[in-house]
Amino acid sequence: MSLHTGCHVESALHCFENGEPIDQVSLERVIGGAIVLDLTPVTERALIDVADLERAYERLRTQHETIKAGDVILLRTDWAQRAIGTPVYFPQSPGLTENAACWLVEKQPKCIGCDFFEEPAAREPGWTADQFVVHQAILGTNILLVEGLVNLAQLPPRCQFFAPFYHFAGIDSAPARAFALVEQ
Known about the structure:
Mean pLDDT: 94
Order of helices and strands: EEEHEHEHEHEEEE
CATH class: Alpha Beta
């Protein structure tokens, strides 16, 4: 079974030799209040930078929402709805810049979820793990990554998020079943 297919949670061991393995990650770190940063519209292969995150954040503030330390930040591009499961999902996916990843880390979330593949280096053949600057910036601060999310367009700006995952011993990632509860 591939651990990086579909929805999954990644721990620091994914990028760091002595990083925290997935079986040592508590479920509380992928459960809680979530804020959706709506980055749409986003084109194929777009590089999402700090200015894009700031625009999305400003839209949130007009809806009287803000990012709080300890929130789950969900990044919505709608890319997964268009391409997950197809050969273009990875090579044509939008990605985050390293500066954008640092901006997200500064907000002190407990985890970050994406509906796109956030690492631009992986779009090109011959990439190596040391080029995963987005993963390093996020996972290096013990903020978890939830990849392979879908249907973020159906969520309001704030909801309750859950991404329970398997506790496989000594590895970097595990499949997850992500869902949200929306207040009516």
